[in-house]
Amino acid sequence: MRFVKLPQRVRTFKPNIIIPQGFLLIVDTREQAPLFGVEEWCIRKALKQGDYSVVGFEDKVAIERKNISDLLSSLGTGRKRFEKELERLEGYEWKGLVIEGTESELYVPSRFSSLHPNSIYQSLCSMELRGFHIYYAESREKARWWVLSRLVKYYRIKREE
Predict the structure, then answer these.
(1) Distance CA 71, CA 136 (A)
(2) Residues linked to residue 87 through DSSP beta bridges, in sequence order
(3) Does a structural domain hold residue 137?
(4) Domain extent at residue 152
């Protein structure tokens, strides 16, 4: 197999996300390691569901953020609580899960969990089939891009309707 080195413009790609007028991203007050700091288009507010949403659409769109150890804990010892959270999101128009880490990191046996990789995989498959959009972010910066671009796009689409 031959590996091709990606061009510099691809390796350094950064999306151009334009914040529309009136857009306000909500960061849940319980979010312990928020992806966003002080921004004019960002507020901290308690959300019923998820870690991120948009003002005016809090009951329609939500994104949950997990790092690898938090996700493994939620799928293991915290499973009942996590499943209740997921059930409450079932009526949402769009829901996402951003995982801070790569997919390969998730399936490596770790000190964080005794869960079998197949159990983790099947749990995430189940979430996707229930309508969750899952993204593995190799960095916090890419997690921020994914969350912000999805919520901005959702806001724009809803404003056009």
Answers:
(1) 12
(2) none
(3) yes
(4) 23-160
